[in-house]
């Protein structure tokens, strides 16, 4: 923790993925004083955070995870879905699965086209390289997986470390081979924003130490923590933002905090940067009086800005999980149910980070709209969307339709997950319950993640108390197109299973979770309803868009109707992107830091240090 200073130029609410990135970049300038306030603890040296293979040990535990549960989802047979959220320095980057993918060009060009100048693929490209250093795959990985498309010159120069495993095995290899056989061979490095087919993404794992590389290990190193202009409070909750309303437009001038000992006080800052994540930044705005007037008045919260877009437009990646029993001898993470195996692997890991506990071995594939017959023709895609035209009327949904009608836009990302999944559970106490190997057989799981959902959910407070989690309603499949697209891709999974060599690793007539097969469109819809959950990518709840189109922040991330207040985290995405989203959270934060520095220069030139 740096030394305490009296005045902070910037107060960052939330020491998570985006918050720590911005804090590091701003305090590179010794003249800028920053305070970060994080509700969770500093657990950076905790073995569960550091060891990639022990991630399940954190879910549901209050010292790591906020542990959200959804409202019952009518589009999912009324199941209640679990949603972990990181509660510690590093936020969700400290509890995530470390898959690090780069978004396709179309996803980011859509951001620009929604009215956000300076936020298209080309403008963001420098930041896609700035946050990360990608280490080349080991030769063994290149050979096992046939990574001919991998471009070793794409490295980057940022503090988040990305590496490839030494432990990819038969399932990964046959995954790649089978997609190629089905006409989906990756031909370009997908990190260039293009590419369809199966591929191997890197993991946010330091290749030297084999430990998790996350926002805290990258942006809050001992050297950064010792900067005199950076102060970090942990175990301190921000209860609300404080405004000066005496000068016309409300100016954010500070935050009301509750410290570890329960005492409360207001701290003043030149600018407040909200970085509490897509489920909790909207909570703090609403607690502070920014949101829908009717909601705020019902809770006796004085209205600062009436904006009913706050907490709406929430988007996520729904993911359908199907586990299939493997033949004897096929590698499966389910063997970790045996304490002797786990202990042996722990010892191996302690000996220089060796073995699977230091690796992330999930493989993926980007696939455009497909069903059991394979990839749809352009005409077939257009016909499907035409028959659902009434559900594609808003500007952002038209944008998604346009994207999905392109020949090279992946409508799903498939994952090959190395063990069993029980996402059929009705209301699990935590995410760990989805993934603990409670069935006696050994499995691999194929996951079907919808890249561009048409459904929109919400996150809203139901109390004026910061300790009461807001109500999360993702509204999965409320737009019927989402169910239709997911179900067709589930039909494609049956084709994968019938195709050699992937199909050969599974036991003929072996066990399945869920038991229903995606062998007809109606059965595939039922697979989705029984086993779809969140892929933990909530975003867009405080979208960067023109206010009349549903926006909460402008293209400099300033909250409409206020001064001195920005949001920098996954909430500001204008539209969900294809692929896992941590890359874009870091990228948005890197770009935000530059914007904030630029705006500071302008203010300084005007001779003003404040708003
Ligand atoms: C289980 C899981 C697996 C995932 N796997 C992957 C993956 O493999 N690849 C990938 O790309 N993405 C993955 N993600 C998604 C990715 O990690 C997140 O989208 C990203 O980290 C979110 O960053 P953020 O800055 O928006 O929020 P966060 O990183 O969650 O930061 C928000 C911070 O704000 C703090 N906070 C909240 N309220 C308050 C308050 N009132 N006062 C003070 N502090 C507060 C929180 O404690 C937290 O530290 C995963 C996420 C989860 C949860």
Automatic annotation (TrEMBL):
Pfam families: GMC_oxred_C, GMC_oxred_N. GO terms for molecular function: flavin adenine dinucleotide binding; oxidoreductase activity, acting on CH-OH group of donors. Keywords: FAD, Flavoprotein. FAD binds at residue 238. InterPro entries: FAD/NAD-bd_sf (IPR036188), GMC_OxRdtase (IPR012132), GMC_OxRdtase_N (IPR000172), GMC_OxRtase_C (IPR007867). Residues 277-291 form the Glucose-methanol-choline oxidoreductase N-terminal domain. It comes from the Eukaryota. Its cofactor is FAD. SUPFAM superfamilies: FAD-linked reductases, C-terminal domain, FAD/NAD(P)-binding domain. Belongs to the GMC oxidoreductase family. This is GMC oxidoreductase. It comes from Trichoderma harzianum CBS 226.95.
